[in-house]
Amino acid sequence: MHEIEVDMSPEHLEAVKAAKELFEPIKEKTFNTLMNRHQRRAAVAEERHADRPVHTVLTMAGSKKIGRNQSCPCNSGRKYKKCCGIGA
Ligand SMILES: [Zn+2]
Questions:
Q1: How far apart are CA 8 and CA 14, in angstroms?
Q2: pLDDT: which is higher, 8 or 2
Q3: SS3 of 79, please?
Q4: How far is the CA of 66 from the centre of ligand 1 (A)?
Q5: Distance between CA atoms of residues 20 and 67, nearest Å
Q6: What's the 47 CA to ligand 1 centre distance in angstroms?
Q7: Cα torsion at 21, 27, 32, 38 (round to 10°)?
Q8: Cα–Cα distance for residue pair 71/43, rounded to 1 Å
Q9: What pLDDT is attached to residue 81?
Q10: Alpha carbon of 36 to ligand 1 centroid (Å)
């Protein structure tokens, strides 16, 4: 049973190489598409956080970016963009 060993003829290796060259950019494109999808999902998750009540925002304020239309975490009752977020 030596047929499998001799199966990798130079023509076959050439074909494998050509196929790799063909698929390499596609793989990269697929990877980028997946990354974009992941980033979009992360952005959607962040928007959902923006709907959370103020006390939740306060606990997240240290580590999370505050949405400009959210209530300011300093408890002024104003929107962040009209309060501490001015110019940010
Ligand atoms: Zn403020």
A1: 10
A2: 8
A3: strand
A4: 11
A5: 45
A6: 20
A7: -170
A8: 19
A9: 95
A10: 33
Nearest to 39 by CA among 27, 49, 31: 31
| Structure confidence at residue 82 (pLDDT) | 95
Task: Give just the sign of the alpha carbon dihedral 65, 70, 73, 79.
Answer: positive
Query: In the chain, count of helices (H) and strands (E)?
Result: 2, 0
* Residues present in the chain in total: 88
Ligand 1 centroid from CA 52, angstroms = 17
What is the model's pLDDT at position 41? 75
* Residues 86, 66 contacting (CB under 8 angstroms): no
Two tokens, residue 65: 């970016």
Question: What residues have a C-beta under 5 A from ligand 1, the ion?
Answer: 72, 74, 76, 83-84
Measured over the CA atoms of residue 65, residue 78, residue 52 and residue 50, the dihedral's sign is negative
